[in-house]
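Quick note —
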Amino acid sequence: MSSSGRASELDRAGDASSPGGSLPLEVRGLVKRYDGVAAVDGVDLEVRAGDIYGFLGPNGAGKTTTMRMLLGLVRPDSGSIRVFGRDPTEEPLGALEGVAGIIEEPRQYLFMSGRRNLELLAAFDRQAAGRKEIDEVLDLVELRDRADDVVSKYSQGMRQRLGIASCLLRRPRLLMLDEPANGVDPAGLRFLRDLLRQLAERGVTIFLSSHLLAEVQEVCSRVAVISAGRIVYEGSLAQLRASAGPMYRLRTTDLRRARDVCDQLDGINRLTVEHDELVFSLATEDGTVALTQALADANLGITSLAHEQATLEGLFFSLTEQTPDHSPVIPAR
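Predicted structure written out below.
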């Protein structure tokens, strides 16, 4: 089957417009508590049509809980969710029409073939995909040659691809994937990135959660970073890079006292400790003058003060590291 033939159904799904031009996903003030502890605490998200949107954060940050609420699997304690303008907790069938997703990992019958798994899912879905559509998605995820093998013989990457194929049977306008790269080898990661780009080109909006920055920076147009249940950044990766600014590494004769001095100075941001160094950014280039003067006034010697360009990975870690009072190291944008 030609690529244009395989694309036909998905292209038609991706081109479908949302009611009233509503955003694919809009979240305001989302909260979910378990035993009095906020797993998700005031989350705001805005996913635009055509985005490959990365939902980044360390394990346990609240990503999966948020996604369960977005798909109507868990009822939030407060806040609002709109999927193409509709609330999935109030209108599950209407809101989630044209939406497909995988939470944590795909569930499959291991003793059945990949094709038979898809046939069963199609039989239970209102859209009733047939053999043509099943062949189409198997081609798209490059499993056509292994479709008649039992799933127990599949690698982890193949099972992830079969899970994505099951989502694509619904011809989604919004595809939600929770940590799809878990257990996938480098070749599988490359295939996944290419597939996501291909789907986005066909008009499918993708919401992708991950704790791996490298996974999303290759494909995502916009990201939100969540830490301890709170959004600490939302915007483009380009804006995130631009916000980093120059970083400095400081070694002194007394690390603890030097940190206290830095805490009292205006213009020092993202202050962290790495081994025997203080790492931080300065709001202005001449901030080093005020810093060295303050250290001298405190009778602290400077062993070294080195300038370096901040990396995206370093900025991500500084965003998700928490201070003792659990407030973000960098204020939410």
